[in-house]
């Protein structure tokens, strides 16, 4: 993680291994507050704007005032380190997971946003149009995967620069994992 993200507070020799992380579970994310990077655990899923809504895990409409308020403030952006992600395929009752990863990178990062809630910090990941590989399984969206050169801009750049990073990752650099 230090090789990918540089120095950060909360660093430890190792973090727990996760077989998979699902909504409403805690996951490690990297934040930048006051110019300092920190590795913290947050629950996946931001409460919605209406009482009784399920927590929102994926953010697509970056111009919505609900999300834009978090996107405008770089301190409410985060990086979600991942080794792979899955999309579901098949009919209801017989769905299976299809896992995706990067060909030459064992660890990469999603673009995320977060906010403090009455139950603690909660985060969601950005999504965008799928690339040609992910589209084979999930034709509506894919997570926003950031290149390492874009991590600093995501965590500290202005709104327009940050949302310009919300685009499909190069399909040729990805693979379906068995």
From TrEMBL:
Keywords: Covalent protein-DNA linkage, DNA damage, DNA-binding, Hydrolase, Lyase, Protease. InterPro entries: SRAP, SRAP-like. Pfam families: SRAP (PF02586). SUPFAM superfamilies: BB1717-like (SSF143081). Its EC number is 3.4.-.-. The keyword Metal-binding does not apply. It is an enzyme of class 3 (hydrolase). Belongs to the SOS response-associated peptidase family. This is Abasic site processing protein. It comes from Parasphingorhabdus flavimaris. The lineage of its organism: Bacteria, Pseudomonadati, Pseudomonadota, Alphaproteobacteria, Sphingomonadales.
């Amino acid at each position: 993680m230090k090789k990918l993200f540089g120095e950060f507070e909360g660093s430890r020799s190792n973090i727990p291994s996760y077989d998979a992380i699902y909504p409403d579970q805690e996951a490690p994310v990297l934040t930048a507050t006051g110019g300092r990077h920190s590795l913290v655990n947050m629950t996946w899923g931001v409460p919605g704007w209406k009482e009784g809504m399920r927590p929102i895990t994926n953010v697509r409409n970056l111009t919505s005032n609900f999300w834009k308020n978090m996107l405008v403030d770089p301190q409410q952006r985060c990086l979600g380190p991942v080794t792979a992600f899955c999309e579901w395929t098949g009919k209801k009752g017989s769905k299976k997971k299809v896992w995706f990863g990067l060909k030459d990178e064992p660890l990469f990062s999603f673009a995320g946003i977060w906010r403090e809630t009455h139950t603690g910090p909660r985060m969601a990941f950005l999504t965008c149009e799928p690339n040609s590989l992910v589209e084979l399984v999930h034709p509506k969206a894919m997570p926003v995967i950031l290149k390492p050169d874009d991590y600093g801009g995501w965590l500290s750049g202005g709104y327009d620069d940050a949302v310009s990073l919300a685009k499909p990752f190069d399909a040729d650099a990805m693979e379906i994992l068995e």
